[in-house]
Amino acid sequence: MLNPRPAVLRIKEYHPPLGGRVGMRLDFNENTSGPSPRVRERLALMTPDDLARYPEREPTEHCLARFLKLGVEQVLLTNGVDEAIHLLCQAYVDPDDEVLIPVPTFSMYEIYAGAAGATTVTVQSDASLRFPADKVLQAITPRTRLIAIASPNNPTGACASEEELLKIAAAAPQAALLVDEAYYDFCGHTMLGQIGRVDNLFVARSTQGRNYQGLGFTTGEERRTMCTGQNTATNFNRTNGARIATVNAGFTIQNLTADNFAFNLKQNITHRNFINIAIKR
Ligand SMILES: Cc1ncc(COP(=O)(O)O)c(C=O)c1O
Predict the structure, then answer these.
(1) CA 182 to ligand 1 center in whole angstroms
(2) Confidence band for 236, pLDDT divided at 50, 70 and 90
(3) What is the per-residue pLDDT across 249-269, written as a single tens digit (0 to 9) for each?
(4) Residue range 101-127: average pLDDT?
């Protein structure tokens, strides 16, 4: 009988409660106002041919690189941050390596680390739920190959400071440090400025349902890091051609610079404040 690899069988099942919803999932941080009108216009113009063709990633990566003020070789389009995590595990993590994860946090780090056959080493936050920088530093071993840190974190909202993240990157040169900035817009602190300076740093940003609509990207120092990612990514991304193709149709980039971005962010923060008030009642 055909069975998946033992590492895959050991992964905890994840069933996001997405089916048949009417309301909003607060913990998914979905965009409360949908894509900008320009995105909708572009989508309406898409033809079956646009969706059928193998997508070209480079034009969008060039636009993104300009937007982020990075070199194009430092930017990798992914199908959401989820794929970026997957790719980092594929590229850097071998069975029996350690993946270090401060918890509680987003569940996909542990799932992809498990699928790679790695040992997950979790570092528990204390009751303050602040980012446990010292405990992360203490947990690094020569077997640590990936450290996954969401900043701001889901579900605690805790941010790691640049100083803490730089210390961690320096303490684990043998490991990829992923700083997942999916919620960057809520705090405004970013590690993007360190890309190209810190060899083992990757910064990921999201998209889906948040502010950029339909695109994820990871950045990292060029040759060794991003080239490995590029090679791995090509195969995975192709299967999701439609999504990348729509990105390449240019609408995402229009959205990046549109007023709609600021509008969405304001709306998300306003809604979050309503929720806070309602919870306190
Ligand atoms: C911290 C964090 N990173 C990444 C993601 C997933 O991002 P994407 O939809 O771009 O794959 C989530 C989704 O909830 C998240 O909470």
Answers:
(1) 6
(2) very low
(3) 444 444 555 556 666 667 777
(4) 95
**Residue to mutate, 206, 236, 252, 268, ligand 1, most ligand atoms under 8 Å from C-beta:** 206
Pick the closest to residue 95 from 112, 116, 120, 121 (CA basis): 116
- Of 232, 242, 178, 183, which is closest to residue 207 (Cα–Cα)? 183
Whole-number Cα distances in Å, 227 to 29, 68, 88, 220, 232: 31, 19, 12, 10, 9
Instruction: Pick 31-280's CATH classification: 3.40.605.10, 3.40.640.10, 1.10.10.10, 3.60.40.10.
Output: 3.40.640.10
Whether pLDDT at 210 is above 60? no
Residue nearest to atom 7 of ligand 1 (CA): 81
User: Could you tell me where the DSSP H helices lie in 22-150?
Assistant: 37-45, 48-52, 58-68, 80-92, 108-115, 133-139
What are the residue boundaries of the structural domains of the chain, listed by start? 31-280
Instruction: Measure 27 CA to ligand 1 centroid, in angstroms.
Output: 10
pLDDT tens readout for residues 125-159: 999 999 999 999 999 999 999 999 999 998 899 99
Instruction: Verify whether ligand 1 is closer than 6 Å to residue 28 (CB atom).
Output: yes
> Which two three-digit tokens encode residue 34?
């949908």
CA 179, 181, 186, 190 dihedral sign is positive
Tokens of 36: 């900008």
Q: Which of 87, 106, 202 to mutate to test the pocket of ligand 1 (most atoms within 8 A of CB)?
A: 106
Candidate from 82, 181, 203 with most ligand 1 atoms within 8 A of CB, to mutate? 82
**Is 208 in contact with 61 (CB distance < 8 Å)?**
no
Distance 80 CA to ligand 1 centre (A): 7
